Amino acid sequence: MEKRLFEIITDSSSDLPEEYFHQHNLECIKLGFLMEGVSYEGEDGASMEAKAFYAKLRSGAMPSTYQVTAEAAKAHFEKYLAAGKDILVIAFSSGLSGTEGSYRVAAKELKEAYPDRSIAVVDSLCASMGEGLFVDYVVKKADSGATLQETAAYAEALKPYMCHYFTVDNLFHLKRGGRVSAATAVVGSVLNIKPVLHVDDVGHLVPVSKTMGRKKSVLALMKYMEQLQTLEEGDPVFISHGDCIEDAEYLAELVKERFPGHEIRINYIGPVIGTHAGAGTLALFFKGKHR
């Protein structure tokens, strides 16, 4: 691994574990959420473990989320610019959050103050560990000795091939977010319908199919992977879950059986994504022919 030529900043919507950021020398900007009148995460909110978050969600808590502001982003960026370092920023999908827009505003304002420094903002059009997988590829490119411009171009070329496939256990959180109608949520719950969704080419979360029952929805995730994957040696596969580790491990076993030899990383869906997807959400991320 060569010495990295610039700093990389991403955000907590990548749902990567804390140790990943430390191991790879990445800055993580935290989005925040409000629950039961308390502000969590963000710049100065309280902390909450994912398992505790999902326990509250299951008990009826109704959290809301908030994006990174331009002022908060500037504080993260400026310390590197002031030290004479250039920055690559990998943002949560602009189709799901205004955070990427805040990064661009911050970058524009700071460019005026630091005209000799470079700031590249890449809209990942990714979410959860799909963004995490995207970050992982980009970090490896940067650590190969690529310049900021080369790495940013690589990231832009890569993002149409980052496949995200989700299934949810409960339709009511999607109803709250406007993804399905109230009638669909009621009928789907009565009939045990489990939708499969993906993140599309413009970074929106959209339904792609429906299944009857949980096991079929998990198998549907594998079906999409079998149809679309273009895995090569060294390509990892990421899985995230909304406090349903048994389902995540079952899915990981299916992946190992069908595509042996690839690193599989499992982690929680964090509270920001979990607020909108709900407990029991399961997601599979891999490089493919297209989204």
CATH topology of the largest domain: Rossmann fold
Order of helices and strands: EHEEEHEHEHEHHEHHEEHEHEHE
Q: Judging by the overall fold, what is the CATH architecture of the largest domain?
A: 3-Layer(aba) Sandwich
Distance between the termini: 30 Å
Morphology call: globular
Structural class: alpha/beta
Class of the largest domain, according to the CATH hierarchy? Alpha Beta
Q: Count every helix, treating DSSP H or I runs of 4 or more residues as helices.
A: 11
As laid out across the biggest beta sheet, the strand order is 10-9-8-13-11-12
Explain what the structure shows.
- The protein is of the alpha/beta class and 291 residues long.
- The chain has 2 domains: 7-159, 3-Layer(aba) Sandwich (Rossmann fold), CATH 3.40.50; 161-287, 2-Layer Sandwich (Hypothetical Protein Tm841, Chain: A,domain 3).
- It has 11 helices and 13 strands.
- It has helices spanning 18-23, 50-58, 70-82, 99-113, 128-142, 148-158, 172-176, 182-190, 214-228, 245-258, 271-277, and strands at 7-11, 27-29, 32-35, 38-41, 64-66, 87-91, 119-123, 162-167, 193-199, 205-212, 237-241, 264-268, 282-287.
- A 6-stranded mixed sheet has the order 10-9-8-13-11-12, with helices on both faces. Strands 2-1-6-7 form a 4-stranded parallel sheet, with helices on both faces. A 3-stranded antiparallel sheet has the order 4-3-5, covered by helices on one side.
- Helix 10 (245-258) links the parallel strand 11 and strand 12 (264-268).
- Helix 5 runs antiparallel to helix 6 and helix 9 packs parallel to helix 10.
- The radius of gyration is 19 Å and the shape is globular.
- The two termini are 30 Å apart.
- The model has no long low-confidence stretch (mean pLDDT 93).
